[in-house]
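Example: Ethanolamine utilization protein EutJ.
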Amino acid sequence: MDILQTANERMEQLAVLMNKDIEQKIPAGEKVKVGVDLGTSSIVFVVLDENNVPLFGAFEFADAVRDGLVVNYRESVEVVTRLKNRAEKCLGISLTHASGAIPPGTVGNNKKVVANVIESAGMEALYTIDEPTAAAAVLDLQNGAVVDVGGGTTGISVFENGEVIYTADEPTGGTHMTLVLAGYYGVPVEEAEQNKRAQKDSSEHFSVMRPVVEKMAEITRVHLEKSPSEPLYIVGGASAYSQFKDTFESYLKMPVFQPNYPQYVTPLGIAMSSGSGNL
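Written out as structure tokens, the predicted fold is:
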């Protein structure tokens, strides 16, 4: 689909920059957009120019968020601050504004915490949007559904004429895949997580985790029954296995689309939603 071609081009550009700390000095006065994605297993920091071209991308593994909630505020602030400092050094500018994201349906103080982390890292928090909506911005999706598979939850948003008409978020994500892997091989959770990230022996590992992925597909099926929509896109770091999309298609009996580097789609979309912020 054409909608994937542009998204994949952006993903490729961001992947080339990710954690490379490539210096490219930005002219004084040029505006940029900053996105901060507080994930379950990592925190991602993305900077774009006004035309949404990636300028900087970096991440650090962090145990700061669980099931979509910030559980280690101090670590989150420290990581975001380090990533901000790296970006400023590479780009030669001060970053003063950023946007963040939350799982769909998050309300109250849990929503405010994301903005508080950004502000404690020395930036004004411009917007806090839900994660599938951020992904839809990258896909320029007007009609269809986005499933964002995070570390702790699976989030679903349905779009009609560019507007969100239905959202849901349920436990079951990458962390659950890790727990199954750890139990099967009898290894510590930390070791299982490292193996999952490295995707060593990915076919063997995925066969062990397939029931968890099928549960995610069942969650998706139930919510799509309530609000039917096509096409269906899958994003999120936990979905990076090559067999993930095929499992969803087999279970749901419908076409499923996935951009390259699905782990970077939401961070890119968060940055795209952010207003220009440096001076």
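Residues 202-226 form the longest helix (25 residues).
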